[in-house]
């Protein structure tokens, strides 16, 4: 079971309270989209789930296990960013393989991995290579494994970032506006690929977007966030046809 339970999450930056007590249950295998205007706290919530930010109050559980105190690498989740966050000096193969290499190394061995091809036995490298190859095939980038991120299109970079998340076989994926840097056509295509990935893996997805169409078409449920609070959580049609209040109605109804 990989359900996520979020309880009364609070976060303040300086004098701004960004999360004002967010609670949310995400079911095992669910695809939930978190939507809301820019600055409402979506990324902060995701970063707390990923362990990249520490909350001031509240709790986060994954599969029944409290995970607030775990470092990012120990959480059974993978995050995909809008900016891709690839290592520019590593090939696609190495970028995708990094989490697998890191997992096999002790703490003091980890740093050099990012500078050159990972150490370890030939068998270990072959195993990593097999997993990288499988992920790359699934994402249709197997022919690009020797390129550097600088030699890729935006879509190919995003596929590489997805591959790096995929090889971890996480219990949950967190995606922060992964398609917003892509042009409209590619966005539509990647949308259905991510949906297909979700179906195939059956893994829990928390997907942040400011694109209502994306949220409505991809998700089992939609959570609408504004000003650090969740105003409504429901199926796409509930949120669309039966908005909880005027703010939700205005946000969901606004043309893009
Ligand atoms: P969203 O992803 O919904 O656009 P964010 O979670 O990125 O919103 O940001 C919510 C608010 O928190 C914004 O006002 C932003 O400026 C502020 N914020 C986010 N991260 C930091 C930080 N590290 N330091 C100070 N303020 C931050
Ligand atoms: Mg954001």
Would you write up a description of this structure?
By secondary structure, the protein is of the alpha/beta class. It has helices spanning 42-50, 92-104, 107-113, 122-138, 154-166, 184-201, 212-218, 236-241, 246-253; strands spanning 4-13, 16-26, 31-35, 57-62, 65-66, 77-80, 172-176, 204-209, 221-226, 229-234. The protein is 38% helix and 24% strand. A six-stranded mixed beta sheet has the order 6-7-8-3-9-10, with helices on both faces. A four-stranded antiparallel beta sheet has the order 2-1-4-5, with helices on one face. Strand 7 (172-176), helix 6 and strand 8 form a beta-alpha-beta unit. The relative contact order is 0.18. The mean pLDDT is 89. The site of magnesium ion has 3 residues, from helix 1.
Low-pLDDT windows of residues: none
Order of helices and strands: EEEHEEEHHHHEHEHEEHH
Average predicted confidence as pLDDT: 89
The helix fraction, in percent, is 25-40%
Major beta sheet summary: 6 strands, mixed
Give the overall shape, derived from the CA principal axes: globular
Bound molecules: adenosine-5'-diphosphate, magnesium ion
Query: So what's the oligomer here?
Result: single chain
Counted by DSSP, the helix tally is: 9
The helix/strand class is: alpha/beta
State the distance separating the first and last CA atoms: 37 Å
GO molecular function: ATP binding
Organism: Pseudaquabacterium inlustre
Domain ABC transporter: 4-252
Keywords: ATP-binding, Cell membrane, Membrane, Nucleotide-binding, Transport
What are the defining features of this structure?
six-stranded mixed beta sheet, 38% helix, single chain, 256 residues, binds magnesium ion, binds adenosine-5'-diphosphate, alpha/beta, 10 strands
